[in-house]
Amino acid sequence: MSGGLLVAGTTSDAGKSVLTAGLCRWLRRRGVKVAPFKAQNMSNNSVVVVGPDGRGGEIGRAQAMQAAAAGVAPDLRFNPVLLKPGSDRSSQVVLLGEAVDTVTAGNYRSMKPRLAETAYAALAELRTEFDAVICEGAGSPAEINLRDGDFVNMGLARHANFPAIVVGDIDRGGVFAAFLGTVALLSAEDQALIAGFVINKFRGSREILRPGLDMITASAGRPVLGVLPYEEGVGVDGEDSLSYAADRTLMTTGPRGTEWLRVAVVRLPRLSNATDAEALGAEPGVRVRFTTDPAELIDADLVVLPGSKATVSDLAWLRDTGLAGAVEAHAAAGKPLLGICGGFQMLAESIHDEVESGRGHVRGLGLLPVEITFERAKTLARSHGEALGAPVAGYEIHHGVVTKSHSPPLLRYADGRPEGAAERNVFGTHWHGAFESDEFRRRFLTAAARQAGRTGFTVAPGTSFTAVRETALDLLGDLVEEHVDTAALLRLIEDGPVRGLPFLPPGAPARA
């Protein structure tokens, strides 16, 4: 086998990342050497990958999870262009793992040719090393105002001569109109590459859906290749803000003891690496909820201030919304408070930032006796050490560094250097992914439950975060095998685009 496929979507958060991961796991089971690829990702949910030269770089966490599904080590080439939004108008550009520039809508267009060249070169290399490359699109290919210079959706498919399938989330409603509209808005050349559709998150009997499947096949001239049922626990690390909306709740199974541990995660405007909370939610009996409600913070057992791509801006938002007061009230009540990366920086007495916000000296929440200074060089590292008597590993992505501390550390690097802070019931660390270390997570949650007065909460000693993730990826592979026309997919990957598909003029009436 030697080929590839583009997984496009009717919208953001339609299920592209999930389907791509499922396809990678399914192909791996068949003995296919497969790689995931996303030419350009816009996300603050990233992970550090160490390249062959030993240098650390960033890619989207979704691509790292897809690599796990494929059974290969994450590679900077899997996500050659990463845009990290710092505001509504600007994003940091990460090229093959390295931050190289900041772009706005105005100067992004002039940068596109360079970004496209890098993406196409990365894909060409992967195609020489892997039997198949499963590409994930971005947003929707029908964003016709963005088609000129596109190298993520149909521009990529045209360049590589890859067939494309379009996935739509039926849970949102209007999926058939979205399928037909997506195809109709494309040019004839782009339409020629759209080979079929996959419906995501269907609830109920497929027979009830049959008239719609038949009609969209007739109307669009392309088959529905699969209907994936709605299943809990099949998500991969999200990349869109939609994945971590306020009021989203994460939990696995009920408590092992007699009480839940309720964790409230502040849903910051520039939230980054929210997957840290998913590691907490993997523990039985831990209920994790993203929220912007001050009352939920005061009522929670543990409050988490997560990472942020705009620490100073999000700190101002905390104060403007009254959430800062709720965070302070929670800590004053003696209940545990945890800050991770940007959230840790907000807990400091002071922040000096001439890099990210340009605001200079800013007063922090003052809940940890540390001072933070932003440096122009970004720290990118995979880190190992010890915390609470347990081994811990994580990764670092930050400009801010601790320049003064009067607090005991929360963690220590393998060489003994201190990291983070632990002051009575307030904790902070720059390490993302630390709570994926099972024994450390259990010890931290046990201590947090005790501080919160949840004496009936008990951890489950056998919980493995890696096993939880592997189970989810296996389930995705199962769903693809059971609910998608895999024979048709193999033909597409091996043989390329289907010839002779009909062209749908925009606005054409549906064919019965």
Automatic annotation (TrEMBL):
GO terms for molecular function: ABC-type vitamin B12 transporter activity; ligase activity. Gene3D superfamilies: 3.40.50.880, P-loop containing nucleotide triphosphate hydrolases. The keyword Ligase applies. It comes from the Bacteria. Transmembrane segments: none annotated. Keywords: Cobalamin biosynthesis, Glutamine amidotransferase, Ligase. Residues 6-234 form the CobQ/CobB/MinD/ParA nucleotide binding domain. PROSITE patterns: GATASE_COBBQ (PS51274), GATASE_TYPE_1 (PS51273). The active site is at residues 341, 432. Residues 262-440 form the CobB/CobQ-like glutamine amidotransferase domain. GO terms for biological process: cobalamin biosynthetic process. PANTHER family: COBYRIC ACID SYNTHASE (PTHR21343:SF1), DETHIOBIOTIN SYNTHETASE (PTHR21343). Belongs to the CobB/CobQ family. CobQ subfamily. Catalyzes amidations at positions B, D, E, and G on adenosylcobyrinic A,C-diamide. NH(2) groups are provided by glutamine, and one molecule of ATP is hydrogenolyzed for each amidation. This is Cobyric acid synthase.
